[in-house]
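Per your request, structure below.
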């Protein structure tokens, strides 16, 4: 009887270990990237999307935006990559990303061309980029970049919010009434060609900002960061700490 009980316990343990092993193997397979061959055939596909006002892009995808009366989203890439590019709208945000982690034996650009009447929010991450092809006109726009990504935009707005982190870059040109900036972790906000009345700037952790205020500038810097202003405003409020600096520059 005891031997039979021991046999049952051993059998149960063996079955349990087999199940756990299969489960672990399944999880590893899910996480592993899919290796694919490129077809060498670059194609463009028109996507049918719902109305949106913002864009969120990641994973090295290049996005080019234009402001126009129609709504249009086109994806241009290798035919093998095209089915993996997601362009979904959630809460009025167009999210552009890859469906799964995939590794291709050759580098293939993924480019998305967007025309839309309104843009209120643009967010980039993971080496992706957004570039405007014409002036983006509106009331208020929020720009956020992180993880080595970039935004390059020409605009005409009443209020602009710009936030950069983790080695990313934001470059802004045009006109605005108010600019609020926040940079950190070696990132950069270049708004020296954005002619603006008021600037509220905060920089930290080795980041850099360039601004062009006309009426007033409020700047706070810390931890080796810098804010450079290219026009001396009527009012200037500066707070520097831990090696941070605020300086005037010509040109």
């Amino acid at each position: 009887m005891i031997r039979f009980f021991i046999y049952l316990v051993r059998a149960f343990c063996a079955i349990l270990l087999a199940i756990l092993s299969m489960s672990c193997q399944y999880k590893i397979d899910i996480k592993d990237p899919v290796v694919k061959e490129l077809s060498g055939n670059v194609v463009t596909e028109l996507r049918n999307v719902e109305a949106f006002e913002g864009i969120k892009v990641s994973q090295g995808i290049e996005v080019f935006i234009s402001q126009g009366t129609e709504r249009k989203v086109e994806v241009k890439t290798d035919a093998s990559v095209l089915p993996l590019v997601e362009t979904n709208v959630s809460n009025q945000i167009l999210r552009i990303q890859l469906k799964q982690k995939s590794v291709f034996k050759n580098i293939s650009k993924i480019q998305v061309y967007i025309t839309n009447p309104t843009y209120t929010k643009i967010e980039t991450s993971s080496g992706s980029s957004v570039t405007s092809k014409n002036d983006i006109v509106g009331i208020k726009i929020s720009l956020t970049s992180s993880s080595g990504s970039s935004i390059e935009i020409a605009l005409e707005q009443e209020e602009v919010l710009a936030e950069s982190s983790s080695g990313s870059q934001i470059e802004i040109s045009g006109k605005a009434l108010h600019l609020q900036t926040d940079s950190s972790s070696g990132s950069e906000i270049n708004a020296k060609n954005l002619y603006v009345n008021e600037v509220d700037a905060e920089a930290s952790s080795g980041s850099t900002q360039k601004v062009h205020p006309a009426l007033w500038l409020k700047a706070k810097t810390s931890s080796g960061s810098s804010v450079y202003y290219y026009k001396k405003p009527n009012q200037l409020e500066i707070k520097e700490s831990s090696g941070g600096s605020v300086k005037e520059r010509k040109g």
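Residues 135-251 form a domain with the Pectate Lyase C-like fold (CATH 2.160.20.120).

Regards,
D.
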